[in-house]
Structures are given as structure tokens and as C-alpha cells.
Specification:
Blueprint lengths: L1 H26 L1 E6 L4 E6 L4 E6 L9 H27 L13
Antiparallel strand pairs: 1-2, 2-3
Helix pairs in contact: 1-2
Organism: Thermoactinomyces daqus
Protein name: Nucleoid-associated protein H1164_15445
Pfam family, one: YbaB_DNA_bd
């Protein structure tokens, strides 16, 4: 019974640490860029879009499609960086488990 109590304490501690790590992710920001930095997207660790910056010289009313593609590319880069950040910060709690989609 003692081992079970010890294990439950360890699980509770790990849950607290994981909750803290998830909370800290909200404060972290990543940036995705496209077109050599003419489009920048900032996102926090909870995948919330925080800002979009577009250089005025890239805005061409005759080529809206290019601007849309640049925004999409910057957004996708930021999402990838958030996924990497989450895997780094929360992956240690998986304890070697390889469960797709867990984080």
C-alpha cells in the first residue's frame, strides 16, 4: 500500500508540473515569416494568433493571391514552431510514451 501512496504522490506532482508548463506556454511566443520577412505572424504556445505584420511594399492590389500565400506560409511556419515548442516543453511528461497527437 505504501508504494501505491508514493506513486499517487508522484502522479499528483507530475500533474502540477505539467499544468504549470502548459500555463507557461501561453506566455511564450514564436514567429513565422515568409517572403524574406515581409510577412510575419506571431503566435503564443497555445496556438493563438497574436499579431500579423505585413510590409506595405508587398501589398499589391493586382496580386492579392501572392499576399494570401505569404500569410499562409508564415502562419504554417509559426504553427510548426509552436508544435516543436510544445513537444520540447511538455514532451518530458510523456515519459517515453509515443502517442501520436498527445501533445
Amino acid at each position: 500500500m505504501r508504494n501505491m501512496n508514493q506513486m499517487m504522490k508522484q502522479v499528483k506532482k507530475m500533474q502540477q508540473e505539467m499544468a504549470k508548463a502548459q500555463q507557461e506556454l501561453e506566455q511564450k511566443e514564436v514567429e513565422g515569416t515568409a517572403g524574406g520577412g515581409v510577412v510575419k505572424v506571431k503566435m503564443n504556445g497555445h496556438k493563438q494568433l497574436m499579431a500579423v505584420e505585413i510590409a506595405p511594399d508587398v501589398v499589391d492590389p493586382d496580386d492579392v493571391e501572392m499576399l494570401q500565400d505569404l500569410i499562409t506560409a508564415a502562419f504554417n511556419e509559426a504553427m510548426k514552431k509552436v508544435d516543436e515548442l510544445v513537444a520540447k516543453d511538455l514532451g518530458k511528461f510523456a515519459g517515453g510514451l509515443n502517442i501520436p497527437g498527445l501533445f
